[in-house]
């Protein structure tokens, strides 16, 4: 059995709002919403990887404030192990992304109405207080 793909994501909160990012159409899961982040590289711890990924994708710095979820999702040809961390911006908010075509700030209750990438759903359910499917 192959090892899961280890991925991290940031649930970036500002003034009670949460950042959601829509994947570019040409990307895997294009057009679906996710929390920004990416793969953990060899030799990185998850927190280091997340800070690096957010800098690369969004051009902003973050401070990780806590662990939210770690879940494994069967993505067809592989399993994705996604760890979501709560985070805060260090400085200005992002205005563009290398991996996303839209960035929106939403109240937690509005998250459930978006078309989320499957690996992000457990974190969305936790943030909205909705029951798992």
Question: Secondary-structure map with pairings?
Answer:
Elements: E1 5-14, E2 17-23, E3 33-34, E4 37-39, H1 46-58, E5 61-74, E6 79-90, E7 100-106, H2 121-128
Structural descriptors:
133 residues, alpha+beta, Nucleoside Triphosphate Pyrophosphohydrolase, 7-stranded mixed beta sheet, Nudix_hydrolase
Task: Note down, in words, how this protein is organized.
The longest helix has 13 residues, at 46-58. The chain has helices at residues 46-58, 121-128, and strands spanning 5-14, 17-23, 33-34, 37-39, 61-74, 79-90, 100-106. It contains two helices and seven strands; from the N terminus they run ββββαβββα. Strands 1, 2, 3, 4, 5, 6 and 7 form a seven-stranded mixed sheet that branches. 16% of the residues lie in helices and 41% in strands. It has a single domain (5-128), classed as Nucleoside Triphosphate Pyrophosphohydrolase. It is α+β, with helices and mostly antiparallel strands and 133 residues long.
Share of helix among residues? 10-25%
Q: What count of structural domains?
A: 1
Q: On the 0-100 scale, what is the average pLDDT?
A: 93
Number of beta strands: 7
What composes the largest sheet? Answer: 7 strands, mixed
In angstroms, what is the radius of gyration?
14 Å
Low-confidence stretches: none
**Tertiary shape:** globular
CATH class: Alpha Beta
State the secondary-structure class: alpha+beta
Order of helix and strand elements from N to C terminus = EEEEHEEEH
Number of helices: 2
CATH topological fold name: Nucleoside Triphosphate Pyrophosphohydrolase
Strand content: 35-45%
Catalytic activity: 8-oxo-dGTP + H2O = 8-oxo-dGMP + diphosphate + H(+)
Domain Nudix hydrolase: 1-128
GO molecular function: 8-oxo-7,8-dihydrodeoxyguanosine triphosphate pyrophosphatase activity; 8-oxo-7,8-dihydroguanosine triphosphate pyrophosphatase activity; 8-oxo-dGDP phosphatase activity; 8-oxo-GDP phosphatase activity; metal ion binding
Pfam family, one: NUDIX
């Amino acid at each position: 059995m192959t090892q899961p793909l280890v991925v991290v994501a940031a649930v970036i909160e500002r003034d009670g709002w949460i950042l959601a990012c829509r994947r570019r159409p040409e990307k895997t899961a294009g057009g679906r919403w996710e929390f920004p982040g990416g793969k953990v590289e060899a030799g990185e711890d998850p927190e280091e990887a997340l800070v690096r990924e957010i800098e690369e994708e969004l051009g902003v710095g973050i401070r990780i404030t806590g662990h939210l979820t770690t879940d494994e999702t069967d993505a067809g040809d592989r399993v994705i192990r996604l760890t979501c961390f709560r985070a805060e911006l260090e400085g200005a908010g992002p205005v563009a992304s290398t991996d996303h075509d839209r960035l929106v700030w939403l109240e937690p209750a509005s998250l459930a109405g978006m078309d989320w990438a499957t690996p992000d759903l457990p974190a969305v359910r936790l943030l909205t207080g909705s029951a798992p499917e």
